[in-house]
Amino acid sequence: MTTQREIPSIDESYPALLSGVSQLLAKARVASSRSVNAVMTATYWEIGRRIVEHEQSGKARAAYGEALIDRLAVDLTARLGKGFSPTNLKQMREFFLAWPIRQTLSDESQPTPALPTDSGKSQTVSDQLPAKRFPLPCSHYVRLL
Question: Which of 93, 97, 56, 101 is nearest to 72 (CA)?
Fold first, then answer.
């Protein structure tokens, strides 16, 4: 025999509570979406930087660069799934080349170690990315390219 659970009666302040909690969650969703966009955009920029730096150490850059992109696309897709086609990787490389982030002179003069947190551990990878410098989603920067 199944009984339905009765919902207790509520007072007139309940709608205000429900509305406030709903607004809080909506704002959190927008903020988290912006944060994810910023971190992913910074990650794509960093991937582009690493590709460029790897290519520049090669001798025959043009031919080597295409082979590198094709190989990286195959390997990343096998490991991580969709999103790493040669076209996307080329756009990441172009993104880095189009928007280089220059450090200040003091930053360039000395390597900066990862900052320890209160627990003594290094910051997360997202903390080390220049996410705050990219307020738009990556697709906007690709469009601008």
Answer: 93
Per-residue pLDDT of the chain (145 residues; tens, 9 = 90+): 556 677 777 788 999 999 999 999 999 999 898 888 888 999 999 999 999 988 887 555 556 667 899 999 999 999 999 999 999 999 999 999 988 876 544 444 444 444 444 555 555 555 666 666 777 777 777 777 6
> Sign of dihedral through CA atoms 141, 143, 144, 145?
positive
The structural domains of the chain, with segments of one domain joined by +, span 32-101+135-145
d(CA 62, CA 57): 12
Question: Which of 53, 97, 51, 55 minimizes the C-alpha distance to 73?
Answer: 51
Interior angle at CA 117, CA 111 and CA 122, nearest 5: 50
| Helices and strands per DSSP (H, E), number in the chain | 6, 0
Q: Report residue 95 as tokens.
A: 């993104």
pTM, 2 dp: 0.65
